[in-house]
User: Fold Inter-alpha-trypsin inhibitor heavy chain H3 from Nannospalax galili.
Amino acid sequence: MAFVWWPCLVLTLFFGLETSGFPRSPLRLLGVSLVVDGIEVYSTKISCKVTSRFAHNVVTTRAVNRADKAKEVSFDVQLPKTAFITNFTLTIDGVIYPGNIKEKEVAKKQYEKAVSQGKTAGLVKASGRKLEKFTVSVNVAAGSKVTFELTYEELLKRHKGKYEMYLKVQPKQLVRHFEIDAHIFEPQGISMLDAEASFITNDLLGSALTKSFSGKKGRVSFKPSLDQQRSCPTCTDSLLNGDFTITYDVNRESPANVQIVNGYFVHFFAPQGLPVVPKNIVFVIDVSGSMYGRKMQQTRDALLKILEDMKEEDYLNFILFSGDVTTWKDHLVQATPDNLKEARAFVRSIKDQGMTNINDGLLRGISMLNKAREEKLVPERSTSIVIMLTDGDANTGESRPEKIRENVRNAIGDKFPLYNLGFGDNLNYNFLDTMALENNGFARRIYEDSDADLQLHGFYEEVANPLLTSVEVEYPENAIQDLTKNNYPHFYDGSEIVVAGRLVDRDMNNFKADVKGHGAMNDLTFTEEVDMKEMEAALKEQGYIFGNYIERLWAYLTIEQLLEKRKNAYGEEKENLTAQALELSLKYNFVTPLTSMVVTKPEDNENQAAIADKPGEGRQRAESLGTSPFSDVPSVDGDPHFIIQVPEKDDALCFNIDEDPGTVLNLIQDPVTGLTVNGKIIGDKGISPDSKTRKTYFGKLGIANAQMDFRIEVTTDKITLWNGDERSTFSWLDTIMATRVGLSVTINRKKNMVVSFGDGVSFVIVLHQVWKKHPVHQDFLGFYVVDSHRMSAQTHGLLGQFFHPFDFEVSDIHPGSDPTKPDATIVVKNHRLTVTRGSQKDFRKDVRVGTKVTCWFVHNNGEGLIDGVHTDYIVPSLF
Ligand SMILES: *[C@@H]1O[C@H](CO)[C@@H](O)[C@H](O)[C@H]1NC(C)=O
Ligand SMILES: *[C@@H]1O[C@H](CO)[C@@H](O)[C@H](O)[C@H]1NC(C)=O
Assistant:
């Protein structure tokens, strides 16, 4: 069985292997290098059409392979997380490969097939705060041309008085024709429009950037010449790398605007100039130990800034929770200058300590607001808000997510909204999101970064100015169907309420809508009447509108709201919501979390080449490595710390194996697929003979696939691949991807490597490097199973036995010998074990800092959790 590394794709070259082989392009002779690694990208165009906040964006890139052999061409686009991809086509030498939206399960089967045939896959990956990444790579023959065209759509939402459209610009090389061309059409008339690039000041852009607006139309064009793209006059690398942001707003002469086209309507509502409704606001702040340091300081800074923005009519209090709950005042107090002064002193004194009791913190805050209302402590015409900030998972008191949600739901009883702010990555964001949504609020992630205080304050600004509460939008009975959400607990200044639906009778003459809400002084009703004939005529006259934009806007909004509702639904209701959202996604061609895009060869539905998938929020994990989004990740890292995550429980178990250096342990053994993974233990440099204090790690890993006659040996220095007797060796200094049918190996220089066997078995090996002259420690490896769903039910080994679904029950949580780490009893595999709450680190994303995973630690080498005893897993050699 001859082994061919076909095609060995070198993504980044570190040893200049390929550079000599390029034909000199005529362009290079002119001193302009437009060919990078054999590929010339000769055109990139981002075309945006926005009609009534609904944006339709098309990104087109054209490239030619000027090398004398086949080359990989990659297309990367970062698009807003709130956008849905609606189309993608690939054109190679004039042959069009169209994209089709399919139900995810159907698409996945085709994708598996494509991968097993060695086809390149495109993915949407999580990426940054507001954007996610769409990537596709294709192999292009020498001299061939390729065109990528990606379309995505989104409804721009109004925040702080404007709509913002982000375009990530990152061409990576000089592009002969680079252009952003945006046309905005707003029937209400445009009141302001701006555009700026994060990578260069506008005056330096000079003639490259033009922006203008007049009446209903706005236009932004960014067309830098080759010289304007260079990072310096003699440079050949591109300056274009960052965000290009277009912002605008519309005239607000009337509080509402209704547009109707082809039987679909959209109703925008944003009244101006109303007085702000006083707020009763409780800040529930996590001050647990993990908030230590910068996070705590940024929280204090943000709270101080928020106090500056408080209005004298507002009432407030602070609830701090760690292992227990403390409050600033016993009840809400008015934001008088004296009280604010005292509040500032209190905020400055906040310190971190202990565990995380989310449940009791929230319940205390909620009951305080309820009591303030009952005892008429706060004004009648005021609105209550809970803002909770946490950076971790509940780990003391009531720590079951479902139970906390139930308690909070019952306590709030739909009376006011809860906003959850999740600080950093070490938390169960889905839990915070779901809990906020089911209490009429929403969750926000605060990214751990130097601007975290600004993010917190920015969030506060969005909810600081409620102009109306209990907003209801009403239409004449029986005139409207398929209405999107039409009641909102608040209308905040600077935002906008959008409702869309379908007319029962397309030929009706008059359209009437009422918006009712409670204002600061009195109850208000805004009535909007529209003469249909006039409206349709006015909109059509523009000839500007892309086809059925209101219908698509309605579909977008409906799908978005169904998906949101689905997060809190169970059983039949969830299936129903899923079915409705799926049907609309398929009908209107949206890549949502329920659908995927499959790119097919013409007249060959069997031969799929690429796929687009939308990632969810949640714990931010494997996506950054481009691995599949499966969430159960058994792993072993550090002083062999085994972590078994159980996603159904939102929890994890962990254990250590304490054995002598030189011992080889079996991690995975699958008799059906023939896969084996073993790890060899190393110790610290000056090994302490005392097994209690010594630290051991994995220094060498062996992955073997008997059926493929294939082995990989990974040490902290090098990576060796054997196919039968044929051997290839790589260093951790390489960045390479090697693929063959049913197998791909990617080495990310000095960081990690990903080994995948088809779609369904995928491992990540993380390299931990320590300072070479470190007196004690040495380099070691971590091993993560990111996907195991294609391994057989017979799979065993220290990690392999946990690939099968298993359950455990935690009870009797009580203080342990270490006051910060409670003990508990768990029942697992018919054993009753005493375990201790602890945390381990997941280093896949960031090898230096890691991501904290809280888990129940099983003592004595995992006794009772693992089948048999740990010595059963000792094997004589790596292979
Ligand atoms: C997708 O884009 C291609 C190329 O522009 C176009 O021919 C095709 O009609 C589009 N498909 C849909 C469903 O819009
Ligand atoms: C499912 O949705 C349909 C409307 O599409 C509705 O008539 C039906 O009652 C729903 N069923 C459940 C169980 O919610």
About this structure: Residues 1-31, 603-610, 618-632 have pLDDT under 50 and may be disordered.
